[in-house]
Amino acid sequence: MNLSTGLLGGSFNPAHGGHRGISLFALDALGLDEVWWLVSPGNPLKEGASDMAPLKARLGSARKMARRARIRPTAIERELGTRYTVETLEKLIRRYPRRKFVWIMGSDNLAQFHRWKNWRKIARHIVIAVIARPGYEDEALSAPAMAWLRRFVRPASQSRNWTDWRPPALVYLRFRPDPRSATRLRRDNPQWHLAFSTTASRDPVTRRRIP
Fold first, then answer.
1. 3-state secondary structure of 192
2. What pLDDT score does 44 carry?
3. pLDDT tens across 48-69, in order?
């Protein structure tokens, strides 16, 4: 039996209630067994960010935020040695043949999806579920990537059938807006990561310790 698994990538700098809310919504809307949070060792589109906390702290905040939910934060990209999403997906699909993956991203990421390395290849590898975010809908739906992806959009009413779809396939899901953001949390508490500096951290997916 294939386990249906949503993949939500990001810096999680820190993880917050918005990440959790989107994931819980996706679990229900897509009929998922679980969601993996791919805590990135480094986002190529955010290189040089001076406020990027250590991976251990970001994974620790993700584990705390994911408690008591079918959400598994993981730093598996560090073990895979991948830098770009397309590389991560290729290796995950090979490593976990009994899982059926769907890529989850906010409409803010859809707006810049054309900047991702080999973004068309990503779409050919995996079904994409886009979660609407306030203030980004017009920009997302008129984004350069949508000129190509629009022909592959599936009705939201059929979202639980995504395991039967052949990529490329995209479904746009509307979710109650959540004002929380990692940027706001860092602004309010720049030293948030210190709470996780002495916490032993083991990856919930790979079971490896994060140094």
1. helix
2. 64
3. 556 899 999 999 999 999 999 9
Radius of gyration of the chain (CA): 16
Q: Classify residue 72 by burial, with Cβ atoms within 10 Å: 0-12, 13-18, 19+.
A: middle
